[in-house]
Write a structure and sequence with these properties.
This protein has about 180 residues and is of the alpha/beta class. It has one domain: 3-Layer(aba) Sandwich (Rossmann fold). It has six helices and six strands; from the N terminus they run αβαββαββαβαα. The longest helix is centred in the middle third of the chain and has 25 residues.
Length: about 180
């Protein structure tokens, strides 16, 4: 892949559903870098099982476009979008809706990359714990929380604090929201 990328001399590479970590020498090939969309709100939800971990950590569902660096979902954020939640969805329905948002944002990122240089992004001020694949008991707990309307409550709580042009959501307790203990 690296030799093909060097031959193509891309300005930017947009990853789509990429589950591997690219080596730094590959990341350095595109002149403007590599970008991706993650189905979780960065920096709070990095890694796997974003629906389960979002609900259990007290973070609304959403997706983040970001510049890829050598870490896992840790590069500068280009955009975040919250997933609107009605409150009566199952975890499977929430995951399907999140996947649609993820694909929509990826298509928008491709269009933006074609239109011209992408912005440098906003560095993530802190790395929260990496989310591992959820265990069955965690999935059950998330399903119960979603059934109680917690995913909807998180969406409503964060929506007034979220604006597409402002990626500087506060990370401290004075802000009125932080991931729950263990997040």
């Amino acid at each position: 892949m690296a030799s093909d990328l060097r031959r193509l001399e891309p300005d930017v590479v947009v990853l789509a559903r990429c589950a591997v970590i690219l080596e730094p020498h590959v990341l350095s090939i595109p002149r403007e870098g590599v970008v991706n969309v993650h189905p979780g709100l960065l920096p709070w939800i990095r890694g796997n099982s974003p629906v389960t971990h979002s609900v259990l950590r007290g973070v609304p569902l959403g997706a983040s476009a970001f510049r890829v660096d050598p870490g896992i979902d840790s590069g500068p954020v280009l955009e975040r979008r919250l997933l609107p939640v009605r409150g009566d969805e199952s975890v499977a329905q929430l995951w399907a809706a999140l996947q649609r948002l993820w694909m929509e944002m990826t298509a928008d990122l491709v269009r933006a990359a074609l239109a011209g240089p992408l912005p440098p992004g906003t560095p993530q001020p802190r790395r929260f714990a990496l989310c591992r694949t959820a265990a069955p008991d965690e999935r059950d707990a998330a399903e119960a929380a979603a059934a109680r309307g917690e995913a909807r409550a998180l969406f409503e709580r964060w929506l007034p604090l979220t604006h597409p042009a402002d990626l500087s959501l506060p990370l401290d307790a004075d802000a009125g929201f932080v991931p729950r203990a263990g997040g």
